[in-house]
Amino acid sequence: MLDRPAAEHRVRYVVEDDRDESGHLQRQRVAPVAGFFQPAAALGSAVQRGDAIGHIVGPLGDVLATVRAAAPGTLLFLRTFPSVAAGDPLAAILPIQAPGDISYRRGP
């Protein structure tokens, strides 16, 4: 055994989701056009439906598209590599806004 204090518990959410295609995070928010993705929200931040998650810009900096949150929740992942093709994953929103155990289950 190591003689040191236990590591800090950093898990904020426990999520079980058996809805259809719930595990396909890459389908959540995808690039509508090719270009360069510039995030407009921070990873882990709370977003509301319609909030800008980021912008796709062209090579000269012109905004080609604004990517918006489709639902309220917490920004679970956010693309950091700027170059995107149409259909590339950009972000996923976990549909919760407060820490805790979350379960999305269909009825019996």
Q: Can you describe this structure?
A:
With 108 residues, the protein is mainly beta. It has one domain (13-104): Beta Barrel (OB fold (Dihydrolipoamide Acetyltransferase, E2P)), CATH 2.40.50. The chain is 0% helix and 42% strand. It has no helices and 10 strands. It has strands at residues 13-17, 29-30, 35-39, 46-47, 52-57, 63-68, 73-78, 83-84, 89-94, 100-104. The strands form 3 sheets. Strands 2-9-7-4 form a 4-stranded antiparallel beta sheet, with no helix packed on it. A 4-stranded antiparallel beta sheet has the order 6-5-3-8, with no helix packed on it. The model has no long low-confidence stretch (mean pLDDT 81).
List its traits.
about 110 residues, single chain, OB fold (Dihydrolipoamide Acetyltransferase, E2P), mainly beta, 4-stranded antiparallel β-sheet
Give the fraction of residues assigned to helices. under 10%
- How many distinct helices? 0
Q: Detail the poorly predicted runs.
A: none
Helix/strand class: mainly beta
Distance between the termini: 45 Å
Biggest sheet, strands in spatial order? 2-9-7-4
* CATH homologous superfamily title: RNA polymerase II/Efflux pump adaptor protein, barrel-sandwich hybrid domain
Q: Report the sheet with the most strands, covering strand number, pairing sense and barrel closure.
A: 4 strands, antiparallel
User: What is the CATH class name?
Assistant: Mainly Beta
Mean pLDDT: 81
Just name the CATH architecture: Beta Barrel
The number of distinct structural domains comes to 1
Shape: globular
Strand % is 35-45%
Q: What Rg do the Cα atoms give?
A: 17 Å
Order of helices and strands: EEEEEEEEEE
Number of β-strand runs: 10
